[in-house]
Amino acid sequence: MARPGVIGDGKKQVIASNIDQLVIITSTIKPRFKPGLVDRFLVSAEYENLKSVIIINKIDLVPPDNYESYALTWSSLGYDVAFTSAKTKVGLDDFMKFLKDRTSALAGHSGVGKSSLLNAIQPSLDLHTREVSQSTDKGVHATTTVRMYPLDFGGWVIDTPGLKLFGLSGIDKENLWRYFPEMRDYQRHCRFNDCVHINEPGCAVKKAVETKKISEFRYINYKRIWENL
Ligand SMILES: Nc1nc2c(ncn2[C@@H]2O[C@H](COP(=O)(O)OP(=O)(O)OP(=O)(O)O)[C@@H](O)[C@H]2O)c(=O)[nH]1
Ligand SMILES: [Mg+2]
Ligand SMILES: [Zn+2]
């Protein structure tokens, strides 16, 4: 996984290599639930041919109807989803099951609870965590370096500082749809074979969104990412 360089010569900064999977962590609130960011990470992982799983953390703070429908959509696409609370320790079995015997990189905004979840499953790690700012609803980058830890029950995990910018280098307006698995089945039914599913007439993907075969929020996130490429 790499992100565009922010300093110096602008070369890619490699965040992690030789990992088996990306564990995408989002919180229900504090900082607010961000399905768009999850989709962005999913696109990066699809592009890198990397398995990804999704953790929705801080479920002690918000009722399920706020995030359940998103989770259903993601799992229908084949991504494993777990609901956790590092505070009440709900769902940690699922989290551990995902991590066991694999090398995983954690991804997610600052403050979603990446380090707290690791402390909850393995207290001896004793990772530094910090409260989310009341005024800005943002984490404060408690974790400042990328580090890899061995897990007592087998596997390795890479804790990262809250990353919001993952590079989508290699992905462009023409090929973005390829990293949305649900679009692959419809693309060949589009009128134009170079259809990018934005404004073209006879677009089978847009039709599938209208008939609810493709989830609307996924399509909205597709358009948002597309516009920023
Ligand atoms: N209520 C509640 N609070 C949580 C939960 N998980 C983490 N927190 C709190 O959220 C804050 C941020 O947690 P961290 O573990 O530091 O978050 P992080 O994702 O590692 O953040 P960075 O290292 O900055 O990227 C801390 O105050 C935690 O106690 C949870 O499941 N429920
Ligand atoms: Mg951290
Ligand atoms: Zn199309």
Give short descriptive properties of this protein.
binds zinc ion, Ribonucleotide Reductase Protein R1, domain 1, 2 domains, six-stranded mixed β-sheet, binds magnesium ion, Rossmann fold, 229 residues, binds guanosine-5'-triphosphate, alpha/beta, two-stranded antiparallel ribbon, globular
Folded structure, characterized:
The chain has 229 residues and is an alpha/beta fold. Helix content is 28%, strand content 15%. Helix 1 crosses helix 7. The protein is globular, with a radius of gyration of 18 Å. The model has no long low-confidence stretch (mean pLDDT 90). The site of magnesium ion (MG) has 5 residues, from helix 4.
- C-alpha Rg, in Å? 18 Å
Number of strands: 8
CATH superfamily of the largest domain: P-loop containing nucleotide triphosphate hydrolases
**Poorly predicted residue ranges:** none
* Strand fraction: 15-25%
The outline comes out as globular
Which class of secondary structure composition applies to the elements?
A: alpha/beta
- By CATH, the topology of the largest domain is Rossmann fold
